[in-house]
Amino acid sequence: MRRGITAVVAHDDAVTPGLITEHVPGGAEIQVVEVVGTLFPPTDALKRSDADLLIVGCREGSDEGLALLDWWNSARPGRPSVVFCPSSNNGFVEEAFSVGADDLIVLEAGPDVSEYARRHVEFSLRKAIARNSTPSEQSTDVGKIVCVLGPKGGIGKTITACNLAVALAQAGKQTVLVDLDLQFGDVALSLGLTPETTSFDLAVSGGSLDSEKLDAFLLQHGSGLRVLAAPARPDQAASVTPEFIADVYALLRDEYDFIIVDTPPAFTPEVITTIDGSSYVCMVGMLDALSLKNTRLGMETLDLMGYDPDRVRVVLNRANTSVGITRNDVVSILGRTPDVLVPSHRDIARSVNEGAPVVISQRRSEAARSFEGLAGLFTQMPAVGASTQRKGRVLMRRGKI
Ligand SMILES: Nc1ncnc2c1ncn2[C@@H]1O[C@H](COP(=O)(O)OP(=O)(O)OP(=O)(O)O)[C@@H](O)[C@H]1O
Ligand SMILES: [Mg+2]
User: Would you state the pLDDT for residue 397?
Assistant: First the structure.
């Protein structure tokens, strides 16, 4: 059962209190407990407020708005703040984030506000609360998002994502696999499924998105795994935006134990959104010097994003290949010991062609046991929420990644 959120609102004359409350879904979900008609310096009511979060309604570029966010951030550590603005450019978004805001929402003009805008606000406020809570406070009844990453092509990301997801489903976990390689995704094929519906079809289907609708677009695999397939053609990829993907994750987390995400070999905007919202990263590397160097660079990028290294698990693929690289070389190039080793095996290549992952077709093989071990690692890890503070998206806007 989800807990209701209490919010205090402070606004200037660019935003009416009515427009703000129109954007906030009513009922027990989110309760606006106080509305203050000035920003900075903070009023006594604000200083006394025990609300879960602050909503600052202000004009774009407002210094008073920024000063209030800064004050709230130091006076109420761990309690998020979200900015509501009639308009916005990236400059103000960055300024607001730099003084501790968790999100900035551009308001609809009103007086009638769409259902979509209200849902977007609710999602944003819930995300802000989840990000700021400590792991022990975070709900344990939400699914774990595992983002399978690897900055180089052909190193085994898709093999790993498919086998991990099927292993979890076979272990009785409610699992969904999302193919985020939007241009060249091949998850459905690797699992022997016909992608009758894809994320593109869902994105352009029109109307509001809810669990029932999402369910109708997921493919069904024999293991019990559900799959959100990648668009059928590269030109359809642009319709699947990072915002849409974030909405999809919010729904999936309520329904599934695990959301496994396969990614392309790049830090695309939708991959960064996934990392920002993920519980864990599964970094895949392959046993050759160039690939390991790229894996190291990928981990450095995660560091730059402030991603907690304890939430990263490293898979070394083709670990038994004889290429003149010792175990010590691997550790010194990667800067850490791989958590799971997957051997090179001709059955793996065959499993892709036959659309049957080795955890099904070759259950006794060493490779299958490695993927089952990987599934066991993620099963044991706690169900924590989003790991970072949208830092990836901020860095992306600044051109740092
Ligand atoms: N351990 C392995 N043993 C044998 N073959 C393997 C192994 N891992 C990967 N392969 C082969 O490499 C191919 C590429 O693997 P995969 O599709 O998982 O890579 P990827 O990292 O997802 O690539 P891309 O970035 O292009 O999507 C597989 O189709 C398979 O033939
Ligand atoms: Mg792939």
Answer: 60
Atom of ligand 1 nearest to the CA of 349: 31
SS3 assignment, position 358: helix
What single letter denotes the amino acid at residue 296?
A: R
Cβ of 345 less than 6 Å from ligand 1 = yes
The DSSP-derived string for 209-227 is --HHHHHHTSEE-TTS-EE
Per DSSP, the three-state class of 341 is strand
Smallest CA separation from ligand 1 atom 1, residue: 344
Interval between CA 349 and ligand 1 midpoint (Å): 7
Query: 190 CA distance to ligand 2 centroid (A)?
Result: 10
pLDDT in tens, 163-202: 999 999 999 999 999 999 999 999 999 999 999 999 999 9
Going along the chain from its start, the domains and CATH numbers come out as 5-132 (3.40.50.2300), 144-397 (3.40.50.300)
| For residue 305, pLDDT beyond 90 | no
Say what the pLDDT of residue 319 is: 86
User: Which residue CA neighbors atom 9 of ligand 1 most closely?
Assistant: 156
Nearest protein Cα to ligand 1, atom 13: 154
DSSP-derived 3-state class of residue 245: helix
**Residue 16 per-residue DSSP state:** -
